[in-house]
Design a protein that fits this description.
Blueprint: H1 2-20, E1 43-45, H2 48-53, E2 66-67, E3 74-78, E4 82-88, E5 94-100, E6 104-106, E7 111-119, E8 126-132, E9 148-152, E10 159-161, E11 164-166, E12 169-175, E13 178-182, E14 192-194
């Protein structure tokens, strides 16, 4: 029993000593997702500055999980509010129909994936990103057009939803085969991504041993 006691005490002392020693902890390059809180998102603007700072290549963006803003819904209102059609009944009556078209709502933090990107011929930097924010049928040509386009802003601090003027209306986007007016409230709509950042606080030191002169006889 004494041997067991001293063995246990020695192991505890060794473990405590290891915990209190100032050793450099190596951070693994790949962090398993099951070690993170999946429900908690740390959404930050996706930007050229972020890509340049961490040397993120364009080809790797296909693996990135993108998100719509965490503070507002993106709402697309049909530019033509009503679907108008007619039919003729058996007694010859002209049946006129006006049906309200469906608005499209991307709620806060809607996940999306890369469709494709475009590099500027002038700056040689990433310029446009097309993002799918909804499930699509790859065999459906209309579904393939259901994406939103984001362009890098002037100071490279984010990618902003691209809109245009169409048939007298501003802030218009094409989604599928339809045109929609985006409710922007006068503010740009940015593209986001989830960030998990590991930042080492202590500055590691490497001690040089020096080099002595070795005179040959």
């Amino acid at each position: 029993m004494k041997h067991l006691f001293f063995l246990a005490f020695g192991f505890s002392f060794f473990f405590f000593s290891c915990r209190t020693s100032k050793e450099v902890v190596k951070i693994p390059e790949i962090v398993k997702l099951d070690t993170l809180e999946k429900e908690v998102l740390n959404l930050k603007r996706f930007s050229l500055k972020l890509m340049e700072k961490y040397s993120i290549p364009e080809d790797s963006l296909v693996k990135v999980q993108f998100y719509s803003p965490d503070s507002l819904d993106i709402i697309l209102y049909p530019q033509k509010e009503k679907e108008i059609f007619y039919s003729i009944l058996q007694d010859g009556t002209l049946n006129l129909n006006e049906k309200n078209k469906t608005r499209i709502v991307f709620q806060k933090k809607t996940p999306g994936v890369l469709k494709e990107f475009t590099v500027s011929s002038k700056t040689r930097k990433l310029d446009l990103i097309k993002i799918y924010l909804s499930e699509i049928d790859e065999e459906n040509e209309s579904d393939k057009k259901k994406f939103l386009t984001f362009r890098s802003n002037a100071d490279s601090t984010g990618f902003v939803l691209v809109t245009k003027e169409h048939e007298g209306d501003d802030n218009v986007v094409r989604f599928g085969n339809e045109y929609y007016i985006v409710e922007t409230k006068g503010k740009p709509i940015f593209l986001y991504c989830n960030i998990f950042k590991i930042e080492q606080e202590d500055v590691p030191s490497e001690f040089m041993k020096g080099k002595k002169v070795q005179n040959k006889p």
